[in-house]
Structure formats: structure tokens, C-alpha cells
Amino acid sequence: MQRPLIFVSCGAPVVPLLAGLATRYVLVVPDGGIAEQLRAGGIDAVPWQQFTDPARVAAIRERAPRLPDALLARLDAADVGWGFAGRGRGEACRNAIREVLERTLATQLLVGEIGRSLAATGRLAAVVLHEDVTPPARALLAATRDAGVPSLHLPHGVYARERLVGADVHGTLHADVVAVGGCMQREWFLSRGVAADRIVVTGNPAWDRLCMLSRHDAPPIGLPPGPVVTVAASWIGADSAHRQHVEALHDAMMAAALDGVARLRATVPSLRLVLRPHPSAPASSDASLMTRAAAAGAVPDRIERGDGVALLARSDALVTLPSTLAIEAILLGTPVVAPGFAYDGDAVRSADRDGASVAAALEASLGDVGSSAFALRCATFATRYNGPSDGGAGERVLALIDALAARAVRPGPVDALAPARALAAGGHWDEVVAALQDDVRPDALALCAEALARLGRPTEAEPCFRRAVAAGAGAEARAGLGLLLLERGAHAEAEAVLAQAADIDPSSDLAWCGLGVLAALRGDRDGAVPLLRRALAINPANPDARGALDALAG
Amino acid sequence: MSSRWARLAERRATALLGALQTPSARVLDALGGFPLEAASGAAPCDVVIDPARPEQPDDHGARLRAMIADCAPDGTLALVACGGPAQPASPCGPRSLGATRAILDAHGFTVALLPFDVLGPCAPLRLGLGVRRERVLAELDAHLAASSVRRAARLVEAHLVAGLAPEETGRVLVVGTRGRVPLLPVPDRAVFAAGMLPLLHDDAVMRWLAFVDTELLSPVGAGIGLLAAMRDVDGTAAQTLLQARGRWWARDLEVQRLVEASAHRLACRTIAALDDPVAATLEYELVSAMNALANRWLADELPPCNVR
């Protein structure tokens, strides 16, 4: 019995689950490199394209470039009113849509095909994603849902109440079920119309480690004595709505944070400042961040892109904009100041967007560390944002995945032949044998026999070929059997079987090649050369025909 | 069952006419008219009201002359005429504003007008929708299911539409008098702004405004800059309002919300028009593309804003 497959994206909340999942499932991941890394770490993983039929992929690649024009024609015929800010914007919108279609459609079709191929194996138990809104995730979900494969979304991030209900891509749940960190996320999804029975509070597996870590166990970060304040910078995507405003707002918050540190340093000279750039920001932006801090009078002691957990645990306060860092810090018992943003509860101190407010909040926060009142506020906050926060989120999510997988719609008899052919095209002969071991259809037996032959198992391959021929397989099976017989010296039978193959399918290069080699072995050079040339004419890449001809010429 | 917008407009018409009614007023019988109870004040009456719907074909000229006959020398007449482009007078057709005014002028009445129902049957905005009309009006109705959106729509009607020219709207309240001109409700931008501010932080209203901007106003180049208008909000009041909800306000926040809603709407309309299962998976990319476009347009067309 083969182990079921499970598709996993490898974002922050999913990564801690991989080892546990691998004990029950073969992991399917969206990248060959990731699969290799996981296998190197002893985790059984395969890249998601492994089960696709190359012929179908080729057909998609051939078809995809024609699709944008067809879709745009549909768009032109539709009754869309393209307008914005008092003006018609038809042409600009159309050009932007064309660009999106041309850039993405081929990938979307391909991912859809990957999803269908995975589902067609009959082994795909579930799809687990840390993000269910990106186009590839949507295409995979659409394809696998059609086949009854359940899916789970494990969100990561602060789901801020400020986002517009009904106009936010994250406001729709595309997976079947979402495993949320705490009741804040649960309420967020409920307010967007997601049914309660599709939302399960598990906690975020990415934060299990933080729940179990004591601040004092974190490795030191090597700063001179003095309270440590970390200021975390944000990063804004180029395509945020009204980016100019969002960027200006973030700049104002950052300026307030740095000014606040500078003001506090006036009374606490030993205050250490660490800048934490956003992971998505390029390293090249670090220098300007340092300069900016210095210009604000808050010369940083360090800029730190390394171990974020150690940094948060060893900080005496964190100043951050809306970010998961705030939740991580509170889980570690580190006070947080948020300029111009309010988290639920009173664990995070909000401050106005000015240096004096931030300084006052920071000063109060430095007194929070270690206090029982603050610990209580942190515990309440943790519950709101991360459920039980007991380090068991991963186990709860694994149990949820198993429950979902158990309710997967199992297809009836699965046609394993197409995915097996795809595996054969990729040279995965072991998996071809595994996929077809119980399949008694003529073509399946023939492909299984070929795989056994390629794996150097002729004693198993020969009876398998014979069963294929007996079951009605065509020229391919006979050619395969003939070549095996030729290799083990049963020349008479080989010649008869190869001749049958050539009769049934005159375009079988294997059959003509085998017959040519037999003629050569008999010493019939004149008979062998035209047979081998015929094989090469059909398939110029046939190495045996080429080798035999070269040998005869020599 | 009439649409929500029609019911909204009907209530407005009824309220406007009803506000002019006095105990001794005469209210004409009008089959299928605005629901004002008929009243048979003795002629000559200080107020005569015709609740007939202006789009309903009738001999409106004859009805108006009968009203004039019943009206006291210093009395007042009130009725609703069609807005929109001028209609030729006809003996039995809709009630045109031009023909109504001509009769009132001829009888020495001073006329006051109050345009309303910007999406009424004769409104240019509605007529300009063309093939999109059915879908757009259906969507408008869906937006109006939210009470906050209906509140916003009433504010728009009372304070913005009332300030438009009659030909830009679907209906016009016509008040004629030979005495003292009665006071009609006056559009007040300050009242409008104060009423709209909390509604701008209601997500249903913001989605409705994005619909109005992208689907009604902008495609016809109406030139009404909702985005620019968002900058007129009273920052102090907005700050107070949001802080009570545990949120912070910054200049241009309302602009940002409208851009977000508009870009999302354009993306969703694209997906609906493409009507293709693969295109349906592209919401994220299309929203990003529309945001990028909107950012470019904002940079080109709106002056920069200091958020502090």
C-alpha cells in the first residue's frame, strides 16, 4: 500500500508540520529544490510536477499564448464600465489586464494540470497552504477541489480590522477550512462571511517554539549593558492601494519611533537601539535605514537581520508597525509599542505618531518587563492572537489535517496509467513499478515490464512482458520482450517476437533495431545494415541502432 | 416590487410634497401616484398638491390648469416633473419641466425647483448606462440593502443632488406661488460632510462609493471627483471618531479606502466579464494591477498629501 500524498506549501506556519506530516504522507512541494532539500533531511518529498503527463504539459504550453487574445475579446464584448476618479480608463485597464493575462495564464493552466494530475493519482489526501489567495494557490485549489481533495489554510500575519470588508483579497477563504491562530483571526473571518464550521482555532504552529521559550534561555546578542530597544521597519509592496499614502504613513510612524528612542536616550543614555529591517526589504536598504536613524538623533548600535527570536527575547522593548513581530514579542514577554496602531487588549502600548508619545510609551514599557501585571496582559493577548499558546498548535493542526484527509472523497478505480507514463518520461522507474504493480491491463503490464527491464530486473520483466502480450498488448510489448530475449540469447524466439512487433507496427524502431542486431549476430551484414538504417530513420536517437551500425562499419 | 432606489426616491418625493401640505390643502387624486393621502380642501386653496408621478402619461397640462383654478391668488402649487433632457410637450405624455414652467409662467407664478432622484427613469446618469443599465441597477439595489448605504444615499440626494441642475437629475420638485415663495430644503455641504464622515468608515458605504465612482460617474466622464472630495473630511472630527473605535486617522485615509475598494471592484468586474475559470484565479494579480494603475493616476492627478 503506497502512502498517501499531501501537498504542502512551505510558508512559516507549515514548515513546523513537515516532519510530522512526513511520517504519514509523502510530501508534495511546489519546487524541485525544496523536495531535494527535504529528501536530504530524510523527509520523503516529491516536486508537484512529478505526476504530470509531459504531453499534456506540452499541449498547455502550445495553447497558452493564444488564450489572452481570446479572453480579451470576451472582455471587449462585455458591459464593463472602466472608470476611476471621474474619468473613463478603458484603454489603461485593458492594457493592464492584458499584461496580467500574458504573464500568468500559462502558469495557471500548468498548475491546474498539476493539481488534476495529483488528484488523478488517487493518493492526494489534502492540500495544506499558508496562503490561499495567490494565483497558483487558487489554481491548485480549484483543480483539486473538483476531485474531492480537502484543503486547509494556515494563515500567518496580523489580520487588521482596518482592512475593508468585501474589498480585500484576503477576505475570502478559498480553502475548505482555515486553522486560525486565535479568536482575533476567527472574528476576522466570521465578519467576512466565512461560516463558523470552516474556522478552527488551533494556534499558529510557527509560534509553538516561542510559547515554550523562556526569555532567559535565548542566546545573548552581544550588546553592551543597557536596556535594548528594537525598532522594526516595515516594507510596502509597490502595488499597495494608494501606496503614496501608505508609504507616507509608515514613514511618519518610523520617524516617531526613532524620535521616541532619541528622546528616551536623553534620560537613559545606556539605551541600546537595534534596527530590524523587514525581511522582504533588500539588504541594500539597510544603509539608508541606519542613516535615517542617525539623522533622527537615534544612532543605532546595530542593524540585525539574523535570528529574530533571540533578538526579540533579548530586547526590553520592541517598537513596530502592524506586524507579526508584535505577537511574537508578546509571546516571548517582550513589551511592544505600536505608533498609530491599536492591537486588541492592553498588552501592546499604542502611541500617537509623534516622538514624545513613543518615548513615553517606551519608558512605561521598560518598566513592564518581568512584572506580573504585564505577564497577565501578555497571556490574555496571546490567547486572543494565538489560542492556547501552549506549544501544541502543530499537533492540533496535524490532527485537523488527518481528520480532513479522512473525509477526502476517494475516487473509484483510478487510472494510474497516465501518471505512470509521466513518471516514465521523467525516468522514475521505481515509481512506475509501484504505481502499476496491481494493474493487469495490457498497456499497464507493458509499461511495468519496461520499467522492470530499465531497472535491471530482467527475470521479473520477461514474465511481465509475456503477460502483457497474452493480455493483448501491441507492438511495444512485443518489441520489449524481443529485446529481452535477444539479451539473454534466446535468438530464435526473439526474432519471431520482434518480427510480430514490426508487422503490427512498422514504425517500431525497437523492433527493426532488434531484428538488425539479430542479423548482425548471425553474420548477415548485408541483411543487418538496412534493418538498422530503417530503425534510425524512424528514430535517429536510437543508440543501439547507431552503435550496431558503427560496429558493422568498423 | 419596486427597486430599493425607487422606494428611496418615492419616499423623498412624498416627503418633499408632504412638507408643503397644510390642513386646508387640496391633494389631488392620482392613481398610482406618490402615496400622499388625498385631501379635498375647499377652493380657493392655499396649497394645491398633485402627487402624480411625472413619468406616468397623462394630460398633465389639464391637471396643472385645474390646480391653478383651485389655487388661491396668493396660494402655492406643488408637483413633481421629470428631470433630464428637455422633453417636447405632448397632450398625453410624461410631465415635462419645460411645459410645466411655461404654464406656470403664463399664469404669473414664481417657480422654485428642487432636483432629486439622480437615478430616476429620466436621469441622464441612468440613461447613459446603455447596455449596462440592468446589471448596474441590480448592483445598486444590492448595495442599498445595507442601511448605512441608504443613509448615505439620502444624504447625497439631499445635499449634492439637490444642488445639481434639473436636467442632471431624474425628477424635480416644482413649487409655484403667486405669494410668498415657500422655503425649500437647502443643500448644505457642512451638514453633508458631518453626516458622511462616520459613513466613510463603514465598509458597505465605501464599497458603494467605489461602485458609484467606477460604474456610474467615471465611465461617462462625469468629472465628479469623489476621490478629491474625500480630502475634504474634517480631520479633527475623523480623529475623534476613529479613536473612539480604537483606530488612528491620518490625512488621506478615506482616499486610501476608496482606492482600495475601487481597485478591488475593477478587478472583480474584470473576472466577471472574462467569465473563465482560470481567469477567476487571478483576483490577486488583477487587484495588484489595478492598484498600480490607481497609484499612477493618483500621482498624476491628485496633489501629494502630508499624512501628519
Strand and helix map with partners:
The complex is a heterodimer of chains A (about 550) and B (about 300).
Chain A (H helix, E strand, L loop, with lengths): L4 E4 L9 H5 L3 E4 L2 H9 L4 E3 L6 H10 L3 H11 L5 E2 L2 E2 L1 H31 L3 E6 L5 H12 L4 E3 L23 E4 L2 H9 L7 E3 L6 H4 L16 E5 L10 H25 L4 E5 L9 H10 L6 E2 L4 H7 L2 E3 L4 H8 L4 E4 L9 E3 L3 H12 L5 H15 L6 H14 L10 H9 L3 H8 L5 H13 L3 H13 L4 H13 L3 H14 L4 H13 L3 H14 L4 H11 L1
Parallel strand pairs in A: 1-2, 1-6, 2-3, 6-7, 7-8, 8-9, 10-11, 10-13, 11-12, 13-14, 14-15
Antiparallel strand pairs in A: 4-5
Chain B lengths: L3 H15 L7 E2 L11 E2 L4 E6 L9 H11 E12 L14 H10 L3 E7 L7 H4 L5 H11 L3 H13 L11 E7 L11 H11 L3 H15 L8 H5 L4 H9 L9 H22 L8 H19 L7
What does this structure look like?
Chain A is of the alpha/beta class and 554 residues long. Chain A has 24 helices and 15 strands. Chain A has helices at 18-22, 32-40, 54-63, 67-77, 90-120, 135-146, 183-191, 208-211, 243-267, 286-295, 308-314, 324-331, 355-366, 372-386, 393-406, 417-425, 429-436, 442-454, 458-470, 475-487, 491-504, 509-521, 525-538, 543-553; strands at residues 5-8, 26-29, 45-47, 83-84, 87-88, 124-129, 151-153, 177-180, 199-201, 228-232, 272-276, 302-303, 317-319, 336-339, 349-351. Chain A has a seven-stranded parallel β-sheet with strand order 3-2-1-6-7-8-9, sandwiched between helices. Chain A has a six-stranded parallel β-sheet with strand order 12-11-10-13-14-15, with helices on both faces. In chain A, strands 4-5 form a two-stranded antiparallel sheet. Chain B has a six-stranded mixed β-sheet, sandwiched between helices. Chain B is elongated. Chain B has helices spanning 4-18, 60-70, 97-106, 124-127, 133-143, 147-159, 189-199, 203-217, 226-230, 235-243, 253-274, 283-301; strands at residues 26-27, 39-40, 45-50, 71-82, 110-116, 171-177. In chain B, α2 (60-70) runs parallel beside α3, α8 packs across α11 and α11 crosses α12 (283-301). Chain B starts with a helix and ends in a 7-residue tail after the last helix. By secondary structure, chain B is α/β, with parallel strands linked by helices. Chain B is built from twelve helices and six strands. The interface between A and B is large, with 61 and 80 residues.
